[in-house]
Amino acid sequence: MKPEVLLSRIRVVLCRPSHPGNIGAAARAMKTMGLSDLRLVSPKQFPDPEADTRATGAVDLLANARVSDSLAEALHGCVFAVALSARQRDLGPAIGTPRDTMARLLERASLGEVALVFGNETMGLSNEEVLQCQAAVTIPTSPDFSSLNLGAAVQVLCYECRMAAFSGAAPLREQLTTPFTAPPATHDEIEGLYGHLEAVMTDTGFLNPAQPGRLLPKLRRLFGRADLERDEVNILRGILAATQQRTGHGRKG
Amino acid sequence: MKPEVLLSRIRVVLCRPSHPGNIGAAARAMKTMGLSDLRLVSPKQFPDPEADTRATGAVDLLANARVSDSLAEALHGCVFAVALSARQRDLGPAIGTPRDTMARLLERASLGEVALVFGNETMGLSNEEVLQCQAAVTIPTSPDFSSLNLGAAVQVLCYECRMAAFSGAAPLREQLTTPFTAPPATHDEIEGLYGHLEAVMTDTGFLNPAQPGRLLPKLRRLFGRADLERDEVNILRGILAATQQRTGHGRKG
């Protein structure tokens, strides 16, 4: 199943959100990660201009958001639901990490609709709500300050959903990273650079051939880490050749 | 080194942020993940009540935030900097995933101060700013809607920093990878090298300042990949100084 289809099967359920701005931020967070199905359980204020403002280009998710009076209604038809919870609830599902739990959520999404359930900004989810979910997740935070913004929490979990959906998908990485645009330097080209560098250092008196010390190995170590391209070797040798012309030494490389 | 200490060594640098609310959201996102060092480069409006409101319990980070006029100043003393960039820049560092790149950032944090650099909400970072960083990262988004909120982007990367810091994988990596034998070069030391190199190339006629072309960005890209050590910068500058003495030019760096 395509990652995009799996992501489209994830409902984000916000229970009793107080601030319409957070609803907008959640919509924007969802859409950046390829999620689209927003559900609101008894929102304090919705629709609201502040939600639209914070959603920016994701107002379509707000327009399509379904509002209900109960979590049970929002979860109707779901095959799996995960509750965000800062603490282990009595008899509640064991709390997992975002990475492991979102991987599990995506696995279940291949079987049907699934849900991510978030509580109210100050109260979180009730025990009764957590017990309606099959799994629970905590976003690890600093013990000194665990006050994650609701929109930020939605962003982190949606991000992990996208990472899980596209995991092992080489095409994503290919889009992200551009390989070297130039051919790599060959062994002999790099050795030519070292020879040229040694000649210039000797000419200028920076290197004493009788007592070379660790200078050359250090330069090899530095350039060895850089995965030199042919073009780069040519630039460096061009710089060296230009200094040789000025100092009256012929090219020795 | 303790994860908490590694996280305390990460600067979050916001370049030219337009909306004070986003500065507040970034501070809150940082603090939830155990980061504390916020730097602002030419913010449009700061301090501002809206920043305080969105920061909630993280106003201490705003009070301690250092404001500067240039990215170079914000990165002074850093041994590694990562730019958030939605696209591969011409000659810029290769773009990695948040997971891999934050793991690398945490590794470097064991050697000194490091930085995560974010651009303006609408314009992002300039090419010149990206070229001051040794690595780049993109947060994977839906191709249909890639408009991540600035505060949300800070949240995702700080979350990945915390996950990397507490992954427990660090000791294993320390065994696998060869640790640096010398202290890493800082941002300002590396910039000093580039200035020195430019002076020598200009003196020798290799570089025409009126038509510099892509020479300097190419050299930044090469040395950016190498994770330069202080000792290596000193060697390279020693070579440059020796050629200057021979060509009769004084040190210009």
TrEMBL record, chains A, B:
The keyword tRNA processing applies. It holds the Pfam family SpoU_methylase. It catalyses: cytidine(32) in tRNA + S-adenosyl-L-methionine = 2'-O-methylcytidine(32) in tRNA + S-adenosyl-L-homocysteine + H(+); uridine(32) in tRNA + S-adenosyl-L-methionine = 2'-O-methyluridine(32) in tRNA + S-adenosyl-L-homocysteine + H(+). GO terms for biological process: methylation. Residues 10-159 form the tRNA/rRNA methyltransferase SpoU type domain. SUPFAM superfamilies: alpha/beta knot. It is found in: Cytoplasm. It is an enzyme of class 2 (transferase). One of its GO terms (molecular function) is methyltransferase activity. Its EC number is 2.1.1.200. Keywords: Cytoplasm, Methyltransferase, S-adenosyl-L-methionine, Transferase, tRNA processing. The keyword Nucleotidyltransferase does not apply. Catalyzes the formation of 2'O-methylated cytidine (Cm32) or 2'O-methylated uridine (Um32) at position 32 in tRNA. Homodimer. Belongs to the class IV-like SAM-binding methyltransferase superfamily. RNA methyltransferase TrmH family. This is tRNA (cytidine/uridine-2'-O-)-methyltransferase TrmJ. It comes from Azonexus hydrophilus.
